[in-house]
Amino acid sequence: MAAHSSGIGKEQDPCGNDGVSSMTGEAQSEVLSWELMESRIRGYFDDCNSGDVARIAANFEPDGVHYFPPGTYEGPFRGARTIAEKWHTAVETLGSCWTVDNVMCDPPRRRAVIEWTHFKRAQGIVLRGDEWYEFSPRGLIREIRAYYASPQDPALKNLELGGFDYASRGYPLRPPGT
Q1: Is the model's pLDDT at 137 over the cut of 70?
Q2: Does 23 fall in a domain?
Q3: CA-CA distances (angstroms) from residue 18 to 6, 8, 108, 109, 110?
Q4: What does the pLDDT look like over 30-70, one tens digit per residue?
Q5: Within a domain: residue 165?
Q6: Which of 55, 57, 89, 115 is most deeply packed, by most CB within 10 A?
Q7: Closest CA to 133 of 39, 49, 25, 50
Q8: At CB < 8 A and 24+ separation, what contacts does 83-91 make?
Q9: What is the domain range of residue 86?
Q10: Residue 76 to residues 20, 72, 79, 107, 124: CA-CA distances in angstroms?
Q11: How many CB atoms lie within 10 A of CB 35?
Q12: Is the pLDDT higher at 171 or at 5?
């Protein structure tokens, strides 16, 4: 997903945009590194697994938003503190823990996408999906858009892509440390 330059110092957009984010209206002048973006995402997941509200919130801009599929939770989580408190509650009540399974970054656009696994240990549920990230110029998370591999059907214990062989591809089948 890394963008390629065509021309010296100028990022070409195949749709003819002028270097302004269609999502935020901000100039895309400061380029974050792949390493910084991946480190921020993996650190965010470590912080979520800790359940520590302050650590989780520190990964976001104060007005960060986490979007979810329709009918999930009570809608988007808005604000760094709200996002952190929601994940703290998930760790405490559901035994939630998450893994980052794949990462792709687009530093010039300050965007990334990951695949993840969410283990809800208290319910014995495995939920898989991906998330699209948008970063601020400071390298903090501005927005996350979550997509699930399947609807959260309460009758299913493994919510993942049908027919996809997670085991042979090296995806985690059990929560870390078990």
Answers
A1: yes
A2: no
A3: 14, 15, 13, 12, 15
A4: 679 999 999 999 999 999 999 999 999 999 999 999 998 87
A5: no
A6: 57
A7: 39
A8: 83/56, 83/57, 84/53, 84/54, 84/55, 84/56, 84/57, 84/60, 85/53, 87/48, 87/51, 87/56, 88/51, 88/52, 88/53, 88/56, 90/120, 91/48, 91/49, 91/50, 91/51
A9: 34-150
A10: 25, 9, 10, 25, 25
A11: 10
A12: 171
Which of 37, 20, 28, 29 has the alpha carbon at shortest distance from 132?
Answer: 37
- Is residue 71 within 8 A of residue 148, CB to CB? The reply is no
Structure token digits, residue 42: 């993996």
In the chain, the number of structural domains is 1
pLDDT digits (tens, 9 = 90+) for 12-32: 343 343 443 434 444 444 679
- Asked if 126 and 116 touch (Cβ cutoff 8 Å), the reply is no
Report which of 111, 83, 84, 106 is spatially closest to residue 24, judged by C-alpha positions.
Answer: 111
Are 92 and 74 in contact by the 8 Å Cβ rule? The answer is no
In a domain, 57, yes or no: yes
Report the alpha-carbon angle 32-36-39, nearest 5: 150
β-bridge mates for residue 135, sequence order: 141
| CA-closest candidate to residue 52, choices 100, 77, 95, 85 | 85
